[in-house]
C-alpha cells in the first residue's frame, strides 16, 4: 500500500499563517517496526503554536510537521510490529511526532493503543491536558478525599480536566475565571464538569469561602495565568501549600511574597508535561495514568474540553483562532482529517 | 540564693528605644526542674527587633523580655534537675525565652549544654544563624562535594555561616554583596571565611563564572534580599535548582519567571528556623546539627559573624544600630552581661 499524505509543514519559525504549508507526500508501506497510520483528528494546542513561532524550548528539525497530539487508526504494520494491528486506534506515546497530517509512518514504540470506543475528541486530546491535570493533582501534594484545590484559568483545557479529575477523586475544586458576558453559562459548564465553586477574579478577592470554613483551605493551587491572578489563588493556600504554574497567559511572572515563602512555607513550583514525559516515558506511573484516563473516558466521566472540529484545509483560520487570547482559555480547535 | 535580674522588657509593640525598659527584679532559687542562669551574652537579631515592633508572626505575652539567643552559665539547679550542673555553659533549646536579661529562671528542658571552651560570641549566636545556614544547605537539595551554592546578602549573619559551612563540607560558594566603599575588605573577609568567589550585584549581572564552566552551575540559591537581587541569583541556577528565601531586606518580593518555573523546573521555597525548630525540637537531626556546629566552633573552623559587644545599659544605641539597614547585613550587636 502507498498513500498520499497531506501535511502541515514549516521550515522556518514565524506566524503559523505565514510559515505553515500544506504539502503532499507519498508514503510507502511500513518497514520493520514501522506503522502506517491514518490520522483521524489532531488538536491545535498553544504549545504547538509557540513551537512554530520559535518561542518554545522544544526546537524541531526542519522541515517539521506541526502538532503533537492526535488519534489515529492503524492502516498497516511492518513485519516486526508485535503489539499493534490494522484498524486499532492509537495516540502518540512520544512528543514532537508531527501530527497535523492525514497519514504518517511512526515507529511502533511511538504509539500507544487506545480503545476504539473512546470519543474522537477525547482520544485526540488525551496526552497533554488531561495528563498535565492528572500529574499536577498527584505529584505535588498528597491530597485526601474532601480536600480542596484552587485554580485560575479554570476554563482552559487543563482547567476543565482538573475539575473532572477532582470530581472523580472526591476532591473539591474551586475554579477562577475572568468575568465575561456569558459568565453564568461558563460557571454552569464548569460546575457540570465537577467544579465545586466557580468565581471570577473579582469575586475571589473578597470571597469568604475559605475563611468561613465552607471549604477547607486548599493545599494546592494551579496557575496558568501569572501576575495578580497567580497571587490571588496563592493567597488562599493553607500553610505548606504548593503553588504550581503550568502556563503564563497574562505574560506576567509569579510574585512570591517573602512572608508567604518564609512564614507560610508556601512552595512555588512549575510543571511541564514534556519534561515529565521524557523523565517517565516507560514508567509504571505513566501506564497507570493512561489506563485510568482511558477508563474515565469510556465511562463518560471525562469529556474533551469545549472544542470545534475544523477540516485540515481550514488550518489558517484555526491557528488564528487558537492564537487569539480567548483561544488559550476557551475553545480547543481540533483538525478533523477523517475525509 | 537569690539574685537581682536586670531585664529589657516591653509591654506593648513599638520601636525598641520607645518600648524597651530596663527593669530590676528579684529571682529566687530554682525549684524542681528549674535552672537559675547568669546570662553572659545575648545578640540582637533582626527578628528580635521585628518582634518588638509587632511585625513578626511570633507574638509574645506581655510583659515580655526581648531576645531569643544567648549563652549563659548555670548558677544553681532545682532538686529534680538531672543533666545540668553549676558552672556549665548553656544555650536556649527553645524560642521565645527572653534572653536580654542578666539572670533568668528556665526549665531544664529549655536549655542545651555547650562546651565552656566555645567562644562567647560563637555560643551566644549558635541557635539562629548557623542553624539556618546548616538546614538550608542540607534540606532542600542533596549537594555533593564540589557542587556550588550561590547566595545574596553574603555578609549577613547567615551568609557568613553559609560560607564557613560550605568550606567545611567541600562545597563551593559564591557570595553576592552590595557594592560599598570598602568592598575589597569585605570580599577578603568573606573569602577568608570560605567563599569561593564574592561578587557585587553589578558583577553578578555580567559574570561568566558559571557559563564558562569555571564553577558548576549552582543547584541551590539562598536569598535574604528579594527583588532584583533574588532574580539575579535565581538566574544562575541549574535546571531543577532550588531558590530558598529566608529574608527580604529590600522589602520586595521574589519574582518567579514563568519560564523558570515551567521549563527550568526551578522551585521557589522559603525557610524559617523558628518553624523548623518547632517541628523538629527533639529530633535526631537537631542533636546532630548542634553537635557538628559545636565541634566546628571548638576547632575554630566556624567563627561568629563580625560583631561588637555592647554593655546591657547601652541597649538603646545597640537596637538603633541593629535597626539600621546596614545592621541587617553587617555587624551583629551582642549584649555583654558579664559585669
From TrEMBL, chains A, B:
SUPFAM superfamilies, per database record: GroES-like, NAD(P)-binding Rossmann-fold domains
Primary site of residence: mitochondrion
Domain named Enoyl reductase (ER): residues: 15-334
Alphabetic keyword roster: Fatty acid biosynthesis, Fatty acid metabolism, Lipid biosynthesis, Lipid metabolism, Mitochondrion, NADP, Oxidoreductase, Transit peptide
CDD domains found in the cross-reference section: ETR
One function term, GO molecular function aspect: enoyl-[acyl-carrier-protein] reductase (NADPH) activity
GO cellular component, one term: mitochondrion
InterPro entries xref list: ADH-like_C (IPR013149), ADH-like_N (IPR013154), ER (IPR020843), GroES-like_sf (IPR011032), Mito_Enoyl-ACP_Reductase (IPR051034), NAD(P)-bd_dom_sf (IPR036291)
Protein's GO biological process: fatty acid biosynthetic process
Cell location: Mitochondrion
Entry's EC annotation: 1.3.1.104
Catalytic activity of the protein: a 2,3-saturated acyl-[ACP] + NADP(+) = a (2E)-enoyl-[ACP] + NADPH + H(+)
Annotated family: Belongs to the zinc-containing alcohol dehydrogenase family. Quinone oxidoreductase subfamily.
Protein name: Enoyl-[acyl-carrier-protein] reductase, mitochondrial
Organism: Musca domestica
Amino acid at each position: 500500500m502507498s498513500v498520499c499524505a497531506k501535511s502541515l509543514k514549516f521550515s522556518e519559525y514565524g506566524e503559523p499563517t505565514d510559515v505553515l504549508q500544506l504539502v503532499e507526500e507519498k508514503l510507502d508501506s511500513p518497514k520493520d517496526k514501522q506503522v502506517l497510520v491514518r490520522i483521524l483528528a489532531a488538536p491545535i494546542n498553544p504549545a504547538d503554536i509557540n513551537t512554530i513561532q520559535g518561542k518554545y524550548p522544544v526546537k524541531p528539525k526542519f522541515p517539521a510537521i506541526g502538532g503533537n497530539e492526535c488519534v489515529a487508526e492503524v492502516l498497516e504494520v511492518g513485519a516486526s510490529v508485535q503489539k499493534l494491528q490494522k484498524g486499532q486506534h492509537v495516540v502518540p506515546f512520544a512528543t514532537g511526532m508531527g501530527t497535523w497530517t492525514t497519514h504518517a509512518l511512526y515507529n511502533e514504540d511511538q504509539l500507544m493503543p487506545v480503545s476504539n470506543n473512546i470519543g474522537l475528541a477525547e482520544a485526540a486530546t488525551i496526552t497533554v491536558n488531561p495528563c498535565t491535570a492528572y500529574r499536577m493533582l498527584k505529584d505535588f501534594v498528597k491530597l485526601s478525599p474532601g480536600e480542596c484545590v484552587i485554580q485560575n484559568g479554570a476554563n482552559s483545557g487543563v482547567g476543565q480536566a482538573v475539575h473532572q479529575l477532582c470530581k472523580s477523586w472526591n476532591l473539591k475544586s474551586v475554579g477562577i475565571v475572568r468575568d465575561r458576558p456569558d459568565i453564568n453559562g461558563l460557571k454552569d459548564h464548569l460546575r457540570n464538569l465537577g467544579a465545586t465553586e466557580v468565581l471570577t477574579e473579582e469575586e475571589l478577592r473578597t470571597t469568604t469561602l475559605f475563611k468561613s470554613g465552607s471549604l477547607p483551605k486548599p493545599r494546592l493551587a494551579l496557575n496558568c495565568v501569572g501576575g495578580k491572578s497567580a497571587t490571588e489563588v496563592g493567597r488562599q493556600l493553607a500553610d505548606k501549600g504548593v503553588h504550581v504554574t503550568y502556563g503564563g497567559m497574562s505574560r506576567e511572572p509569579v510574585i512570591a511574597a517573602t512572608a508567604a515563602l518564609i512564614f507560610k512555607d508556601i512552595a512555588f513550583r512549575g510543571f511541564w508535561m514534556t519534561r515529565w514525559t521524557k523523565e517517565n516515558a516507560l514508567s509504571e506511573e505513566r501506564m497507570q495514568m493512561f489506563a485510568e484516563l482511558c477508563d474515565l473516558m469510556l465511562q463518560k466521566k471525562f469529556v474533551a474540553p469545549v472544542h470545534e472540529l475544523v477540516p485540515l484545509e481550514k488550518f489558517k483560520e484555526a491557528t488564528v483562532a487558537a492564537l487569539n487570547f480567548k483561544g488559550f482559555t476557551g475553545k480547543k480547535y481540533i483538525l478533523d482529517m477523517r475525509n
